[in-house]
Amino acid sequence: MKLVSLGCSWTKGSGSGYEFGMSLEQYHAIIKDRDICDKYAFRTHIAKHLGAENVNLSRMGSSNQRQFRLATQYFSEKRDPDTIVLWGITSTARHDIYSIEKKEYVNLLYGNNFAHDKNMEKAGVDTKAYVKNNYDHENEIKQLEYNMKHWNIFFESLGIKNYWFDTFNHHNYSIKIPNMLFEDRPKRDLMTLLCNHYGLDSDEWRYHMSQFTMKDSRRLQKLAKAKKVNPHSFHPTKETHVTIAEMIIKEITSQKI
């Protein structure tokens, strides 16, 4: 059996090797370490629980567009029904475009780019103008709905089990999304669920725009103060990854798919 995981840095396990007291320099040395990510990420814990091999397609800073692209590439070749797909929906304030200069796709993080983002300069994109003229959150939600419906049909046709979850933000989908985890919760995203799990106030809810600062979401502030995410990039600690894995395993076990 394989567990194919898609998502952004939280799913990848970026920074999960953080140890309390690490300097920013020390942390930067391990944040992208693949072996560390694979060791501590919640996807790995879930795969072990299921007795499955983890095939990881999640990427640090990934957008939803990137995940749909990577899934299309992967499943155009791999169609083993003995597969479970765990797919994390990330912030809509991101994009994935092809750079002719770099000959590869480049992540665009809208919130972060309003401050400074050398990645965008290299891609030759005026992010402020793009966001002003082309980014509409509600339209992004509608496109998510279409894509999730499509992939549900695709996986069902192959006999593959799949599960969705919102990562940073609860999205108000206009339709019921089959196979959505935590769908009965007022706010189903992992960040809010963690706040609730640890007894932290999550009422002051703000959409996570991927600025990765304490100003981006008060939920992150509370999790950081409680030492459930690291203070440098606000990614979950290895202990928090265990908690996320336990939450998802419990939810998957309760679903009859």
Q: Which structural category do the helix and sheet elements fall into?
A: alpha/beta
- Compute the number of strand runs: 6
Strand order of the biggest β-sheet: 2-1-3-6
Query: What is the succession of H and E elements?
Result: EHHHHEHEEEHHHHEHHH
- The DSSP helix count reads 12
The biggest beta sheet reads: 4 strands, parallel
Question: Runs with pLDDT <50, length 5+?
Answer: none
Tell me, briefly, the overall form.
Answer: globular
Helical percentage: 40-55%
What's the alpha carbon Rg, rounded to whole Å? 18 Å
**Cα end-to-end separation:** 16 Å
Portion in beta strands: 5-15%
- Round the mean pLDDT to the nearest integer and report it: 89
Write out key terms for the chains shown:
257 residues; two-stranded antiparallel sheet; 12 helices; alpha/beta; globular; single chain; 44% helix
Set out the fold topology.
Elements: E1 2-6, H1 9-12, H2 24-30, H3 34-40, H4 42-50, E2 53-56, H5 64-75, E3 83-89, E4 94-99, E5 104-109, H6 110-113, H7 118-123, H8 127-134, H9 137-158, E6 161-166, H10 190-197, H11 218-225, H12 238-254
Parallel strand pairs: 1-2, 1-3, 3-6
Antiparallel strand pairs: 4-5
Helix pairs in contact: 4-12, 10-11
